[in-house]
Amino acid sequence: MEGFVDHYIVLGLPSGEEALKLSEKEITKAYKLKALVLHPDKTP
């Protein structure tokens, strides 16, 4: 198994202490944007 993956960084969000200040709405928005970018039917 590889090293630790910071899921906030994967979503393009700040990590650490700044991540604690993020709302659920902000995290959800970042997740949906990343899912749209990586979706095989949405990318050429």
UniProtKB/TrEMBL annotation:
All residue ranges annotated as the J domain in the record:
6-44
Coiled coil, from the record? none
Q: Tell me what organism the protein belongs to.
A: Brassica campestris
Please give the name of this protein: J domain-containing protein
Query: Which Pfam family would be a valid example here?
Result: DnaJ
Instruction: State the superkingdom.
Output: Eukaryota
Q: Which PANTHER family does the annotation name?
A: DNAJ DOMAIN CONTAINING PROTEIN, EXPRESSED
